[in-house]
Amino acid sequence: MSKWAEGRIVNVRRWTEQLYSLQLEADIEPFVAGQFTRLAMDIDNERIARPYSFVNSPSNPLLEFYFIIVPDGPLTHHMIDLQPGDTIWVARRAAGFFVLPEIPDAEHLWLLSTGTAIGPFLSILGTEEVWRRFPRIVLVHAVRTSDELTYRDEIQQIASTHPGQFQMIPFVSREDTDFAIRGRVPAAIEDGRLEARTGLTLDAAQSQVMICGNPAMVRDTSAVLKERGMKKNLRRHPGHITTENYWKDNE
Ligand SMILES: Cc1cc2nc3c(=O)[nH]c(=O)nc-3n(C[C@H](O)[C@H](O)[C@H](O)COP(=O)(O)OP(=O)(O)OC[C@H]3O[C@@H](n4cnc5c(N)ncnc54)[C@H](O)[C@@H]3O)c2cc1C
Ligand SMILES: NC(=O)c1ccc[n+]([C@@H]2O[C@H](COP(=O)([O-])OP(=O)(O)OC[C@H]3O[C@@H](n4cnc5c(N)ncnc54)[C@H](OP(=O)(O)O)[C@@H]3O)[C@@H](O)[C@H]2O)c1
After folding, report:
1. Same domain, 81 and 152
2. Closest CA to ligand 1's atom 7
3. Do both 81 and 108 map to the same domain?
């Protein structure tokens, strides 16, 4: 059997001029929430493939992927042309270790994302396991402008299903709002604004932190947490910080 399945687009969600989600059906192997697969299109007789995290939970057969148009990006500026009924290749087998079975138990689970990297956290929040294992869960979505705070209805639904157990903290870095923290995640951890907003302590004794998205944010946030005595989570040496970069850090 080919490693590629034909995915049929069922719906395209257009959030802003740059942000889109594809909902599609494809005959793929089971995956674990937090994993990614690869999407591909044949462009000028070449198959161009890139990794994308599942937004849907494993129990939902309607696959969903959330992406930003990268100007001159080889794949994404072709993906915006897709319409319901069109097809896209989907790798049958998912990959990745950014998943709950890799995370030790803790009182507090912090899910820190920039931009499109909220996707794997939505998949994780759709599992039963996360609610069974972590008494308090904080989801952070850090974006440049407030229109990029997408999936608000879904997040509101999660909050109302799990009152007392779940908090969503929006960050907006490039405009003032009356509801989001203005600025960047590492700074708000350093100066205590994130903890003050949640009422929770972010420390090695109680917390597991998953960080996903912009590699500079992943790097800088990890550095601030390490100053607090938290360690990278490795299979052989369990720690507190588990990360996934969406592209390569230039520094
Ligand atoms: C494990 C993994 C999971 C990923 N999951 C997603 C996902 O769910 N949604 C998604 O949009 N992308 C995701 N990506 C990035 C994705 O694979 C592509 O790189 C991206 O969609 C751009 O593709 P491209 O061919 O247009 O440009 P590329 O040549 O792949 O990228 C060009 C540049 O665009 C920037 N860039 C890439 N991805 C992003 C992004 N998500 N947000 C902001 N800037 C970006 C970077 O500066 C990068 O160097 C993931 C990457 C990895 C490694
Ligand atoms: N979003 C858009 O309007 C837009 C428009 C055209 C193209 N693009 C494309 O999309 C890419 C950007 O993706 P994106 O919109 O998801 O933005 P992003 O640059 O990944 O920023 C998302 C959030 O992460 C923050 N951040 C960046 N570096 C950080 C660090 N070191 N520590 C902590 N936080 C950090 C940003 O803060 P700061 O704001 O302080 O950097 C912002 O709040 C660009 O490279 C470009 O290719 C985006």
Report:
1. no
2. 52
3. no
Domain count, the chain: 2
Angle, alpha carbons 203-174-81 (nearest 5°): 105
Among the candidates 34, 65, 91, a domain finishes at: 91
Interatomic CA distance for residues 64 and 9, integer angstroms: 10
One digit per residue, pLDDT tens: the chain, 251 residues? Answer: 789 999 999 999 999 999 999 999 999 999 999 999 999 999 999 999 999 999 999 999 999 999 999 988 999 989 989 999 999 999 999 999 999 999 999 999 999 999 999 999 999 999 999 999 999 999 999 999 999 999 999 999 999 999 999 999 999 999 999 999 999 999 999 999 999 999 999 999 999 999 999 999 999 999 999 999 999 999 999 999 999 999 998 87
Amino acid at residue number 197: R
Q: How far apart are CA 17 and CA 25, in angstroms?
A: 24
The CATH number for 221's domain is 3.40.50.80
CATH number assigned to the domain comprising residue 43: 2.40.30.10
Identify which ligand lies nearest to the alpha carbon of 123.
1
The boundaries of the domain holding residue 24 are: 4-91
On whether both 104 and 189 belong to a single domain, the answer is: yes
How far, CA to CA in Å, does 11 sit from each of 22, 106, 176, 197, 220? 6, 37, 33, 36, 36
Contact residues of ligand 1, CB 6 A cut-off: 36, 50-53, 65-68, 70, 73-76, 96, 115-116, 119, 244, 246-247
Would 170 be classed as within a structural domain?
A: yes
CA of 89 to the centre of ligand 2 (A): 28
Ligand 1 centroid, distance to 196 Cα (angstroms): 32
